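Fold sample X.
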Amino acid sequence: MKFVISTQELNYLISKCINVVSQKATIPILSNLLIEAKDGELRITATDLIVGIRCFTEAKILEEGATTVPAKRLAQLVRELTAVNVEVTTNSNEVTEIVADSSRFKLHGMSKNEFPALPDLEGAVKFNVKQSELKDMLFRTAFTVSREDNRYALTGVFLQIDNGQATFVGTDGKRLARTLLPIEIDNSYKGNFIIPLKAVEEILKNLMEEGESTFYLMHDKIAVEATNCTLITKLLSGDYPDISRVIPEKSEVAIPLHREELMSLLRQVSLFTAEDNHSVRFSLSDGEIRLSANTMEVGEGKVSMPANYNGPKLDIAFNPSFFLDILRHSKEEIVTMGISDAYNPGIIIDKEMAVASSAASPLFVLMPMRLNEE
């Protein structure tokens, strides 16, 4: 194998694949990248046996072939090169030589025959979606996914396809995010998929603001093709909880709030919460919402902002970090907070609405915390 490619292009290609490589690979070949030079293209593949990615670009192929090289060392080396172009040659002993101007390096690799093949996508149901829209759906849901392995089904983003609509959901049991996206697919097609968080994060890195992506659906895996890269992932097994039981059908009170102002106040008052009780009290009274935290160890913080509310005094407590996360993943200037009482979940909708309902806008659900007596 022999090819010439711009250093910048090679670095870009490797950076797209490197995060899929397992940090603690039990099989040595999984620590390597598969490099293939064929038909005027350079293809780089990485897999950890759950998530796999293949990216390609045009290159000057002088001799077709393939090999695998240690991913981490290659990535670090190419990142440091200052030459405009590199020439890469692999001999029959799987030794890859990299020439950059007057510099020469040799990396010992392994045969491509040992590298696991990526799953075949033949027979998959597919639909096209704008990269920007898919990116938005995943951005707004992935942050709520559980990081704890003891709730296995919650460690991925749930995707439900039904009646020509894709519903994306993330939850860790304390908060939930849901987005809806109409898609062009056979209306009779139905399917439920739990996509591992690692795969979702890699898909997000590959999606751009422009262009289309293609989504492939199979019973045990999904794939996303976008910007010269295809990412394939096995799905998580298990049953995802029925989220309709968590999302309140309606809220007694729906208050529009200025998102940036609320974020600033939450950051201020959260400084006065205790490590073991990260809780802020939200108090609604005529024309005002007050946020307060009071702890023996730190002291007391009270802030307020105007609110379009007229009714009896209403108190509820939320984890400020979770609330801030939701506001960071909202985009509108005004968000709507819907609450009923101190014991039922609050909902935040990324839109100004007259009544808080589970409409098509991105919707977030936040479990309340126990109110401390003032």
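Fold sample Y, listed below.
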Amino acid sequence: PDLVGRSLRCGTDATIGLLVESIAAPLFPELVAAVESASSDAGKSVLVASTRADAGRELRVVTELLRRRVSGLLVVPTASDHSWLARAAAPLVLVDRRAEGLDADMVGTDDKRAAFDAVAHLIAHGHRDIAYVGDYSRVSTSAARLAGYREAMAHYGLLVHDELVHADCPTARAASAAMSSLLAGGRQPTAVFSDATRCSLGVVPVLHEHRRTDVAFVGFGDFAMADALVPAVTVVDHSGAAVGRAAVARLARRISEPTLMPEIVHVPVRLVE
């Protein structure tokens, strides 16, 4: 069949647009594979593009996908105002993150609750000086995880010392620098909560390099070889595949029932000790 002709007759193409921050970033390869598999089962193809965390690029790519008459959009939003997406001429589901200025379906995890449970796990094991190393605090997922960290500390009557909080570490290198600073500081943490896989990949090597494997560690997101580390670490298992499948299911429902009220769908996570 002539796919262009069919899209003109139907008004849309049998294609979903998927916009992620980076194909190479942790979580997203698994998510992309799950979206492609679930979409294929539903008879749809997927166009994948990355924003590189650039709001201008995001606008250009979304505009191009809409020009191609995609039947729906799955968007991992950048950290900027997204009120302009309310006018998108295609059903839309946000993935992994909420978007400022936009009331839309969102499929992801309960980041605040998961972070609370991770820090509570450390507290239950006797830790009081717990450091936080996290991604950009303006990103909704990291903001929620930082809030969960603070809430857990407050819930158990513990002070949050500013010198132990290192937000805005978007790369492994930045997280490494933050961990080195923590180990050189006056108040030594006995445990660290890392709010993203890229941060964990910076924190863990520094702990080993400084022979500080006495410092307990919990990371948000599993990572390669985590189960081979000695001593062992604890991770919040955040499945990109589960998020991808749930996002495709929600978008399919949004396409068939366009008047549905927007909904937040939380995919379960588990603490792997």
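Sample Y note: Residues 38 and 253 are 13 Å apart (CA to CA).
Also: The longest helix spans residues 240-256.
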